[in-house]
Design a protein that fits this description.
CATH architecture of the largest domain: 4-Layer Sandwich
Number of helices: 8
CATH class of the largest domain: Alpha Beta
Bound molecules: zinc ion
CATH superfamily of the largest domain: Ribonuclease Z/Hydroxyacylglutathione hydrolase-like
Order of helices and strands: EEEEEHEEEEEEHEHEHEEEHEHEHEH
Number of strands: 19
Distance between the termini: 50 Å
Shape: globular
Number of domains: 2
CATH topology of the largest domain: Metallo-beta-lactamase, Chain A
Structural class: alpha/beta
Strand content: 15-25%
Helix content: 10-25%
């Protein structure tokens, strides 16, 4: 790779989103466009209304579950297509099922747009890989376009096995005291990662419709999850008899909702990277906070950037300023793009309508 100063940028910022001028397509655009390459199906990266979608094959099921029957072309990881002379391929990002980094090659230079990613199971000392999606794969490039959701040195994740053991122990303790365990987790990705690590011998696992909806697409994609029971909103406020032994997985939007009454007395917890912040759990009056994130922590971000061997880095969302500053001090050309990507892990985020409509998908 020999990016020269004169090489035109392969990705620029347009009002509609990240745009590749050479190939005339967008990546995760926030306004409706003709051609969209989608890194993953979280609501802020995969929006409705585009003419054509291109996504990793394992992510197309979730894309359809969230957006309905959109026109989507599926690409295997590593498979290269050429569009208007631009080579495009998708590579695992380790974030959620079907998440991809987009590699773009044209005129002798290579750009990679990371989307959201995590490095668990790949970077030394990062613990185990997420069993519900393909692990992150570093891709060499001249310019790396990266997220920075947790781009501060305070963010360092404990190993996944450790956190799952904590969750199982909390659940077992509650079950012994005949109290339900209500765990809030983002319904797409986080919930399934937790499910895959739960010990079903402790008791039944009950899922909110928004979670069960996504569980179905994971199972269809071949991801092994333990048996779950689906509890619809329509069932009325009658108490669920087996709830005292149960682990209830619900989206953050269910916090404080009448839906929870049926579980009687319960202990509640929240699984998110934000739980590493002192006070995040207390502010929401939760019994427990579990530090589990589907994004790279600070060492993960730096590692991924180093592995890419890029000499230029563009930061798209999250804690952009601290990461840009750090990279510049390390001698890299770094800048930020003002994007409209959000953070699906923030507790304040209200779930996208498609994910909170359990009745439409049964
Ligand atoms: Zn995401
Ligand atoms: Zn994101």
């Amino acid at each position: 790779m020999s990016a020269r100063r004169s090489d035109p940028d392969l990705v620029v910022l347009r009002p509609q989103g990240l745009y590749c001028p050479a190939g005339d397509f967008f990546i995760d655009p926030w306004r409706a466009v003709e051609r969209a390459v989608i890194t993953h199906a979280h609501a802020d990266h995969a929006r409705g209304g585009h003419g054509h979608y291109l996504a990793a094959r394992s992510g197309v099921g979730v894309l359809h579950a969230r957006l309905g029957p959109v026109s989507a072309q599926a690409l295997e990881y590593g498979e290269v297509i050429t569009h208007s002379g631009v080579k495009v391929s998708l590579h695992p990002a380790g974030h959620v099922l079907g998440s991809a980094q987009v590699r773009i090659e044209h005129g002798g230079s290579v750009w990679v747009v990371s989307g959201d990613y995590k490095t668990a199971g790949v970077r030394e000392g990062s613990g185990e890989a997420d069993p519900t999606c393909a692990a992150f794969e570093p891709v060499f490039c001249d310019v790396f376009v990266t997220e920075s959701t947790f781009g501060l040195p305070i963010y360092r994740w404990p190993a996944q096995a450790e956190v799952l053991a904590e969750i199982n122990a909390w659940w077992a303790g509650n079950a012994q005291n005949r109290r339900a365990s209500v765990l809030f987790a983002y319904s797409f990705g986080k919930a399934q990662r937790i499910l895959a690590g739960l010990d079903p011998a402790i008791g039944p696992i009950l899922c909110h419709g928004a979670v069960e909806n996504i569980n179905r697409t994971y199972r269809q994609a071949g991801v092994i999850l333990p048996h779950t029971l689906h509890y619809e909103e329509q069932r009325g406020a009658r108490e669920v008899p087996e709830a005292a032994q149960a682990l209830v997985l619900a989206p953050p939007s269910a916090q404080g909702s009448p839906w929870l009454r049926r579980f009687g007395s319960y202990s509640d917890g929240f699984a998110s990277g934000w739980m590493q912040l002192r006070g995040a759990r207390r502010r929401q009056a939760l019994d427990r906070g579990f530090v589990l994130s589907d994004h790279a922590d600070w060492p993960g971000l730096l590692w991924a950037i180093e592995q890419s061997q890029a000499q230029r880095v563009i930061v798209t969302h999250g804690q952009s300023a601290p990461l840009v500053r750090w990279l510049r001090e390390a001698g890299l050309a770094a800048q930020a793009f003002e994007t409209e990507f959000g953070d699906e892990e923030a507790a304040e985020v209200v779930e996208a309508p498609a994910a909170t409509a359990p009745t439409s998908v049964g």
